[in-house]
Design brief:
single chain; about 350 residues; alpha/beta; Rossmann fold; 6-stranded parallel β-sheet; 14 helices; 10 strands; about 45% helix; globular; Transcriptional regulator; transcription; Homeodomain-like_sf; sequence-specific DNA binding; transcription regulation
Length: about 350
């Protein structure tokens, strides 16, 4: 009896190539790791399209589909991933595809999306009443076009094998590389954490980012050149995390009234000054924890949180893990707890 689990990815014209090849390579690497351990392959990997044959991606090169979607029984698929790309808009109006997804969804063990592929699942009516995320640039579209969807804007993926804070059956992921994090999470559920870590190491990745982690790096976005009226202040904040960074202090540093500064932050950055400072402090703490040279208490102090409990609350809020868990997953070495 064939015991291989079929992992399929749908492709269509102008699909994002990395949304397809990134996750599929993770599953392929799991097979390689098992073979290195003297174990049989676990996954069968296939690519589906409206018709078999080459399909041109948004990058200009083609990916070859193994078989037609219409010829694929949904119950033959263990996992089906719907990728994103600039061709997504056309697929949201593709009634044959949407009907196949709606009819097939109950029979597929795991149905998920990568990047703007979430819009295709939403167009099929599958995300109504569900928690979902997508690439940050498509969050507003998902929210406005499909108001029945519970949109989670700042999350890597919504897969949860325990069905506590997401779903083990129907799930979504954020942009591009988040699909790789999703694939690692699926492998961990199937084959255990040691296998997921072995695959991540083989692919020269951080072990695995938790699904609740933010899509953004506060120290990397936005670039000061895009927000000239705030550029000097944004450059000053990371170098003064231990200082009093209240709204009044920031306004004085920027030579603006607190009200004007708050308005500019929301207008230019989409968040208020207090939230932005907290994000920068979390990012600074992440960098310190990743280096693995200082204790969590010291990290809390250097990043401007003062007490480790403040650091812990902010980590759970923004990353859905504790500082200790983050250090164990990503740190150069395990930290002392104090």
């Amino acid at each position: 009896m064939d015991s291989l689990k079929t992992i399929a990815c749908l492709i269509y014209p102008d699909v994002m190539s990395l949304d397809v090849t990134g996750p599929l390579q993770v599953f392929a690497s799991a097979n390689v790791e098992r073979q290195r351990q003297g174990l049989p392959a676990y996954y069968r990997i296939t690519v589906l399209a409206q018709t078999p044959g080459p399909v041109t991606t948004s990058a200009g090169f083609a990916i070859v589909a193994d078989q037609a979607l219409a010829d694929t029984p949904p119950n033959s698929l263990d996992t089906l991933l719907i990728p994103g790309g600039i061709g997504e808009t056309a697929q949201c109006a593709n009634l044959k595809l949407l009907n196949w997804l709606a009819d097939g969804e109950p029979h597929i063990r795991r149905l998920g999306s990568v990047c703007s592929g979430a819009l295709i699942l939403a167009a099929a009516g599958l995300l109504d009443g569900c928690k979902a995320t997508t690439h940050w640039a498509d969050i507003d579209t998902l929210r406005s076009r499909y108001p029945q969807v519970e949109v989670s804007a700042d999350q890597l993926h919504t897969y949860d094998p325990q069905d506590l804070n997401g779903s083990a059956h129907l799930f979504t992921s954020a942009g591009v590389t988040a699909g790789i994090d999703l694939a690692l999470a699926l492998i961990e559920a199937d084959l255990g954490r040691p296998m997921a870590l072995a695959v991540a190491r083989r692919l020269v990745m951080f072990l695995r980012r938790p699904g609740g982690q933010s899509q953004f790096s506060a120290l990397l976005t936005p670039e000061p050149s895009r927000v000239p009226r705030l550029a000097a202040l944004l450059e000053w904040i990371p170098h003064n995390l231990n200082a009093d960074l209240s709204l009044e202090t920031l306004a004085e540093q920027a030579h603006m009234s607190p009200r004007t500064l708050s308005r500019l932050f929301v207008q230019e950055l989409g968040v208020g000054p207090g939230r932005y400072v907290e994000q920068v402090r979390v990012e600074s703490a992440r960098n310190l924890l990743g280096a693995g040279h200082v204790s969590i208490s010291t990290v809390a102090r250097l990043a401007g949180f003062g007490h480790p409990e403040n650091l812990r609350r902010s980590f759970h809020k923004h990353l859905a893990v504790s500082p200790q868990e983050y250090a164990e997953r990503f740190g150069a070495r395990q930290l002392a707890s104090h």
